[in-house]
Amino acid sequence: MRVYYSDTDAGGVVYHANYLNFFEHARTEMLRQAGFEQDDLMANGVVFVVRQMLIDFLYPARFNQSLTVVSELQQIAGASMAFQQSLQDEQGRVYCQAQVKVGCLNAQTFRPVRIPPAIKQELARVG
């Protein structure tokens, strides 16, 4: 990914909340790579939401840098998943890292539901 001007503050440094967007985009792409689109999941009654996040800002990412979000699925439980995510440059320098817990909810009631088996299986394969 490329850091755009809109991702930064007036000093050209990535605004802290935008790291969350980078991580969210990567988790969405992981679902897509596993064959699941979020709008299709929602239409079938399932949504994923961030329940908990521990984030560590190590170095400032800057305008126009080319960076990679590395996402590792660490655990899949009944209604939740845990990810380790980091934003890195081409040399492997980590700018930001996060431990993210995501819950699976019923799209209408927003109550926890078990992650469908097909999703668990494919995410375990690609994660």
From TrEMBL:
Family annotation (InterPro entries): 4-hydroxybenzoyl-CoA_TE (IPR050563), HB-CoA_thioesterase_AS (IPR008272), HotDog_dom_sf (IPR029069), Tol-Pal_acyl-CoA_thioesterase (IPR014166), YbgC/YbaW (IPR006684)
KW Hydrolase (keyword) present: yes
PROSITE patterns xrefs: 4HBCOA_THIOESTERASE
Keyword list, A-Z: Hydrolase
Nucleus among keywords: no
Transmembrane segments annotated in the record for this chain: none
Family: Belongs to the 4-hydroxybenzoyl-CoA thioesterase family.
Alphabetized PANTHER family for the sequence: 4-HYDROXYBENZOYL-COA THIOESTERASE FAMILY MEMBER, ACYL-COA THIOESTER HYDROLASE YBGC
Name this polypeptide is given: Tol-pal system-associated acyl-CoA thioesterase
Native source organism of the sequence: Ferrimonas gelatinilytica
